[in-house]
Amino acid sequence: MNKSEVKQRVITVIETTWDWFSEDLDGNDTFDEMGADSLDQAELIMELEKEFSIQVKDDEAEGVKNIEDVVNEVCKILGVEM
């Protein structure tokens, strides 16, 4: 798996979890700017953990502010080259 594949899967999870469409998503918009509150973000983390069979620690989740951060964090946990 490469970073591009991780990003596509992350976007798919966001689309299904938050009922958003990929054309509405900008990798640099913060979740706050997109209207996602802390509960939404926690739900997203749980869905990503299921999708990638990973465990995201609380301190790792706190640093995630946008889609690009999510992709980078998942890649780091999976050991995918960035």
Q: pLDDT under 50 segments (min length 5)?
A: none
Shape descriptor: globular
Instruction: Work out the number of β strands.
Output: 0
Please identify the structural class as seen in this structure: mainly alpha
CATH class: Mainly Alpha
Number of domains: 1
Helix content: 55-70%
Report the major sheet.
none
Cα-atom Rg, whole angstroms?
11 Å
- Share of residues in strands: under 5%
The ordered H/E elements are HHHH
Tally of helical runs: 4
- Report how far apart the termini are: 11 Å
CATH architectural arrangement? Orthogonal Bundle
Task: For the structure shown, list the relevant keywords.
Non-ribosomal Peptide Synthetase Peptidyl Carrier Protein, Chain A; single chain; mainly alpha; 0% strand
Please, could you describe this protein's structure?
The protein is globular. It has four helices and no strands. Helix content is 59%, strand content 0%. By secondary structure, the chain is mainly α. The chain has one domain: ACP-like (Non-ribosomal Peptide Synthetase Peptidyl Carrier Protein, Chain A, Orthogonal Bundle).
Can you summarize this structure?
The protein is an all-alpha fold and 82 residues long. It has one domain: Non-ribosomal Peptide Synthetase Peptidyl Carrier Protein, Chain A (Orthogonal Bundle), CATH 1.10.1200.
Write the layout of secondary structure elements.
Layout: H1 3-18, H2 38-52, H3 58-62, H4 67-78
Helix pairs in contact: 1-2, 1-4
